[in-house]
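Course assignment 3, question 2. Fill in each field.
Student: A.L.
Task: Predict the tertiary structure for the chain below.
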Amino acid sequence: MAANLIARRLSGQAVSTSRPCAPATSHAAGRRCSGRVHSTNPGFEKAFMGEDFGARDPTPGEIGSNFGEKIVMNWDTEHIIKPPDAIGEHVGLGSRQCQDVSALQLLEEQLRERLRQQVPGWRINNNKEGLQCIRQEWTAKDGAAAQQLVAKLQEIAQQHGHPLSHAEAISSTVIAEITTTALGGLTENDFIIADRINSTDLTELLAKRKQRFWA
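Answer field:
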């Protein structure tokens, strides 16, 4: 092909140096060549967008910067869909009553986790005696409101027949723990009390949450 081009130049014939388009088909006659790039390579977007294209976990440096204190709503990855309030009277912990300790047994891990998901805000922990318990903290308006909140939590627990294992106010912070001490761990009663506390309106005693903005 190169020899033919040289011969045509020597004979004085015009030689086109542009790259010709592929022959046009009957339904696309007259169309210009397209300069678009098409790729079926699964790594194509990654090559252009980088490794962190889309959602990702926070880096250790980001976690260490406490970025969760500067964002709107809840930064945690645990998302809970709240069912209609009325449904709690018919299913779940809201439909159950505390039983006598003699009728209880310690919960296995699978059931324990299932019940924990029904009481948002409560976390499984170990108390000072080394017993497994569920724990939650609140921030009250002030020290006086914190003492009132402790009394209110104890009242709710006593009313439903299963006392709190621990409740105290440290300045304006209130800490409550629930466990079945007689059996040395968590039973269904503990989660029922946590559900009753969650169902009680405590807003008049709690500090207002500050509006958070993106950093």
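Instructor remarks: The two ends are 64 Å apart (CA to CA). The domain at 85-198 is CATH 3.30.1360.20 (Gyrase A; domain 2).
Grade: pending
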